[in-house]
Design a protein that fits this description.
3 helices; single chain; mainly alpha; 85 residues; 2 domains
Length: 85
């Protein structure tokens, strides 16, 4: 297929390329959702729909979810690195 097989090493298969593209698309969709939600919050704040109290609660909740994700991600990463296939 377009000489792609000859350009890459034998360890890289079509399945590996499909998985890389799939993860890239997932990251792209996730970034679109995050940027879209931030833009929506910003627009609602400018329109005066969301009060400053609720807005601070929303931003604090977003920061707390990010910190919780990182706290949970570190042990999962180290446990996945220590197990043998």
């Amino acid at each position: 297929m377009f000489g792609l097989e000859s350009a890459l090493s034998q360890r890289v298969t079509k399945t590996t390329l499909y998985r890389v593209v799939g993860w890239g698309l997932r990251c792209y969709v996730a970034s679109l959702l995050i940027v879209g939600s931030y833009s929506l919050l910003w627009t609602l704040e400018l329109a005066g729909v969301v009060s400053e109290t609720w807005l601070s609660v929303i931003w604090t909740a977003i920061a707390a979810m990010g910190a919780l994700f990182l706290v949970l991600l570190l042990p999962l990463f180290y446990s996945s690195q220590s197990t043998k296939w």
